[in-house]
Model the fold of this input.
Amino acid sequence: MKINKGELIVPGIMAAFLAAYFYQVWADEVPADVLTWPIYVGAALAVCLLLVAVLYIPQRGEAAKAAVNVSAFKKPVALLIMTAVYIAAMNWIGYTLGSFLFLLVVQIYLGSGWRRALLVALVVAALLHVVMVELIGLGVPRLTTPWLTL
Amino acid sequence: MNLDMMGQACLSLMRPDILLYLVAGVALGFIIGAIPGFNDTNVLAMLLPFSIYFGPLNAVVFMMAVFGGSQAAGPIPAILMNMPGTPSAAACCMDGYALTRKGMAKKALGVALMGAFVGGILGALVCIILGPIIGKYALTFGPSEMFMVSVFGLSAVSTLTGKHPLKGILSAVFGLLVAAVGTEAVAGYQRGTFGFFELYDGFPLIPVLLGLFGFSELFDMVNEKSIVQDAAQAGAAEPCTLWDGYRECLRHKMTLLRSSIIGVIIGIIPGTGAAIGSWIGYGQAKQWSKHPEEFGNGSYEGLAAVSSCNNGVTGGAIIPTITLGIPGSGTTLVIMTALMINNIQPGPSMFTEHTLDVYIIFLSLIISNLLILGLGHMTFNLFSKTTSVPIANLVPVIALCSLTGSFAARGMFFDFGLTVLFGLFGWLLKKYKYSPSAFLLSLILGTLAENNFIWGIKLEGWGMFTRPICLVLLVVTLLTLLVPVILNARKKN
Done:
């Protein structure tokens, strides 16, 4: 029997979360009466997962044999990586500078001209700094140097 | 209803200072509602200390205007960028964004604005005419009744499952499990937090929302050139205006009336709020629509239902706050606090000791909704221009707004990661034909359902379902699920 690999992803995530949830409450010795509702929901989830597994995972028909367009994943994965780098780098370079660089790099990667990308990055980063950091006082990481705090 | 007092209240509302507070409130509400991650409750809480300088009446009128303005503006980013400005606007994403993709953004914004106006006015009228009477019934809602309200809300899942009902139901059930993460309400045990203290209160709604709807859309947008994709397909080459949207919205009179009433009722019930009401209104609109197949693909009727329901909540929420001293929502809790800081005790005595002030507050709802329509007409046009911005410039800006909005909600770094994680999860749900909407609805209602189910069982056992209001809600739920199915089956025969 051929398996529709793509259809495994979402049920797999749900099943993994279900298992992790009940493993954690079992390891923490949470009393059963506190778990009344999650047990009912977990049981319903298990039944639904089983039905989806039976109906959707086995490959059926011509449509299921369609090739996956790998190139369509290139930009989404790149966006994900750039976002992760931005979040990770924020603690060192601060929110404002990090946002400016994120905007600049992503725009250029997606095909914007560098002049427009630079202008948009400058304006948006400056606006966010003024509104979020200075006016509202959001507690974002800030770049502190002997000369200025950004 | 005291007509003499109402006349005096009308005259008092014409004072320049009150009008100024109304205009400022609506304008601030628009800004809060249009920026994802900003919560009117949080912003009003920050302004609370200044209410002493405003005076109690001006403070309440201002805060109600902010409330109404934020509900009206929440659909703007939802329609234009699939990123709800307020949790209650999430239901606008499905149809509003689909209309933007067809090049009908202005018309969609017009529908949302007119829907907000109609819902707000109807809510205000119910408030004025029936407020003191209806307010008493809010007290009769105990845990059993609240559980049935959440069941009624969850019945809207049946309208959100799309062409794959089983996948939709699976999404909803998974949402219920995710809602069960956090500190258990009765005994205080941690469930599913995996050692993260940031999850002690469960998954925070705003980062999840921004991830599921805003960030997830970016993974598809990066492969496109423009937001507007289907204009040629929909034959929507002619430019449309806000006026087209107003006319389109007013064509769906029954939907507007039904959704506004649902919004008012949801607003009256303490502890619910517009986030729940909007999904119930949407689900009901789809159930009773003559064209349910259009919902989720760019239905003006669906959009009108959500926006009228959202603003109907603002009128409903003030009723128990003023008449009983029980806040109908987080925002009205802040409003109630503003009154108490100024030595006015909300509750039944407010009608006898501050009658004129009560009528001024109720009538100000009508003025603020007129201002919402006027200011909205002037500003919504500007927002629609974002659809002509190239994707290469728009995507990183939307990503940044989503991430900043998610951080702004709690000020926790953890929420950046949550937004990205749920963005990825939302993208996978859409790609494999699951239902992010059903998941979100269950996430919102899950905690309400669980807590009230547990308390209801402890207090009354399984007899909780035999209480009169519970039985009525159960019958209404079954009717709203079955009647449209029966009517459709008869039509086909």
Notes: The longest helix of chain A spans residues 114-135. Chain A touches chain B through 61 residues (CB under 8 Å). Helices of chain A lie at 9-27, 36-56, 74-93, 95-109, 114-135. Residues 23 and 29 of chain A are 10 Å apart (CA to CA).
